[in-house]
Design a protein that fits this description.
- The protein has 146 residues and is mainly α.
- It is 65% helix and 12% strand.
- The chain is built from 6 helices and 3 strands, in the order ααβααββαα.
- α1 (8-38) crosses α2.
- The longest helix has 31 residues, at 8-38.
């Protein structure tokens, strides 16, 4: 019903934008998965390491990774067994487990960041990147939060 009230060109453009953004995200994730394998990491493991910029509760990590906390437990178990991540009790609230990168985890994090950085420009000039970010933020602000 909503689409019928919008001119056909606008609907086609919105669908095309959604398709292209989705395909870009899919290809970016596939690239990161392939590169993470060179570090003997799965894509979700690399993503967790990438997002762990400070000690974070497992619940917050699950939110950043957009997955269930039970999934994070399995990912963390494997990273912990490799000595890349530690679970620590949060000071002031012993019920909360925080995730912290070890020294080796920080080294791997730098390598994961370098992988992501290689694609950050996406062959766009600085001004094109700025404009794309501006446009994507504007489009996102028009949608309800997920």
């Amino acid at each position: 019903m909503y689409a019928a009230s919008i001119p056909t060109m606008a609907v086609a453009s919105a669908e095309q934008i959604a398709r292209l953004v989705s395909e870009l995200a899919r290809r970016f994730a596939a690239y990161l998965d392939t590169q993470a394998a060179d570090l003997h990491l799965t894509g979700p493991q690399a993503a967790l390491i990438r997002h762990l910029d400070r000690p974070l509760p497992m619940k917050d990590v699950a939110g950043r990774l957009r997955c269930d906390a039970s999934n994070v437990t399995g990912i963390v178990d494997r990273l912990e067994s490799r000595g890349l991540v530690e679970r620590r009790v949060r000071a002031g609230d012993r019920r909360v487990k925080e995730l912290v990168l070890t020294g080796e985890g920080r080294r791997v994090q730098r390598r994961v960041a370098a992988i992501a950085e290689r694609l950050s420009g996406l062959e766009l000039s600085d001004s094109e990147q700025s404009r794309l970010i501006e446009l994507l933020e504007k489009a996102l602000s028009a949608l309800p939060p997920a």
